[in-house]
Amino acid sequence: SSNGVWRVPMKLTPESSTVEIQREFEVEVTDFLGNPIEGAQVVLDDGQPMGRTESDGTDRISITNETGDCTVVASKNAEGNKQYVEASETVTVEKQQSRLRFDEVPSDCTAGDEIDVRVVDDEDDPVRGVTVSPEAGTEADTNTDGWASPTVDGSGSTGLSATKSDTTYTQYDGARTSISVKKRRVSLAFDSLPDATKVGKRE
């Protein structure tokens, strides 16, 4: 232009259009020819500063407090006769996905037994507050160490499921497994009959 000012349109590219909350991701800021722009300030649309780009035009940021659509903005102060035109891009912020799995389950039990099972996430960390529900029996919730003690009834192969409600930042994928349940042997005690029958061996 006549007064010697160069307007440099910038381009901001996130590594993915969908990111997980509280997990770092990379954004790249370049000029319209793809050359990296160093020292561009990266902010969220609410003005929250995220950082500045390195010499390769990248910055690693994480969005910590909201899910849904969020706009990331890059701006840079003028240098000499170069004026930088800010760039923005919208990313969709999703809850972190956590996959539950049964870490410890007995291979079998007897109907009516209370069993000990342990539930962990995909990083093998114990998860608290997971509801472990047998197909037949009584459900129980895991403690801080991931252990729960449900009571299992039924006979044959009985399914166990592990579920947890989503929290503010995490969505949990449930787990399923099964356990072999043996029938409890009934011991006969003739307590309700007259004393005269109480002779010989009692099982």
- The coarse overall form would be rod-shaped
Structural class determined from secondary elements: mainly beta
Number of strands: 22
Give the overall average pLDDT: 91
- Note poorly predicted spans: none
Strand order of the largest sheet: 2-9-7-4-5
Question: Helicity, in percent?
Answer: under 10%
Pattern of helices and strands: EEEEEEEEEEEEEEEEEEEEEE
Rounded radius of gyration (Å): 30 Å
β-strand amount: over 45%
Instruction: Note the gap between the termini.
Output: 104 Å
Number of helices: 0
The description of the largest β-sheet is: 5 strands, mixed
Which labels suit this protein?
single chain, 203 residues, mainly beta, five-stranded mixed sheet, 22 strands, rod-shaped
Put the structure in a nutshell:
By secondary structure, the chain is mainly beta.
Walk me through the structure.
This protein has 203 residues and is mainly beta. 0% of the residues lie in helices and 49% in strands. It has no helices and 22 strands. The chain has strands spanning 6-14, 18-20, 25-31, 41-44, 49-52, 58-61, 68-75, 82-85, 87-94, 96-99, 101-104, 108-110, 113-114, 117-120, 131-134, 137-138, 140-141, 147-148, 151-152, 156-163, 170-173, 175-182. Strands 2-9-7-4-5 form a 5-stranded mixed sheet, with no helix packed on it. The chain has a 5-stranded mixed sheet with strand order 12-22-20-15-17, with no helix packed on it. The protein is rod-shaped. 24% of the residues are buried.
